[in-house]
Design a protein that fits this description.
Length: about 220
Amino acid sequence: MQLEDLIQRIDQLIQKADEVLQTVEGNLYDGLSVDSESFYAFRSASLSFLAMTFGKDHTHYDEFNSKASSETPYHTQIGCSILSVAREELAGGWLATTKGLISAEIFSDFLEMAQHLLDEGYKDPAAVMAGSVLEEHLRQLCQKHDISTEITRQGRPKSKKADALNADLTKKQVYNRLDQKNVTAWLDLRNKAAHGKYQEYTEKQVSLMLQSLSDFMVRVTL
């Protein structure tokens, strides 16, 4: 699927949210609600799109799944807002999942791509991309060392967060506690970039992250 198709699809989902909001009924005293069938059709289609495009481990998927969960105007508006942010990232070329990068076939080396973005002055997408590379490396390290990458909640498997993978790898002595602290710091920087907290880190910090991450991945190999 091309970028234009992704943007067109997310525009359709945002339009669906607007249509759901047109079904509002009730009052402030008794509570407002939207048409249940329309809301859950919108929710299902949106989750499917976010999982396919960004992955189920991405912030957008997690936030939509948890915060746009019931048939109310508020939850519908929250879902629409998350889709709008995702659209901005797509339109700006910030699709930084491993799957998206492979499909685009832009760079075979993801860290090289992140460094290229940083060199061009785009520290924020560079940080997000480097974080995606790190998280994928952690998952593959877990698979190599027979560490589960999933937990079961309410009878359903769910992917572990990167912080949990980091802790598990340290417990199994795949790397030491100093490495764990560094990984935690890199993940924190990635999360700040992904959540739009662009003023809380500098271009120099992203540069150091890329250098250190590259060294870490060479030293702690798959």
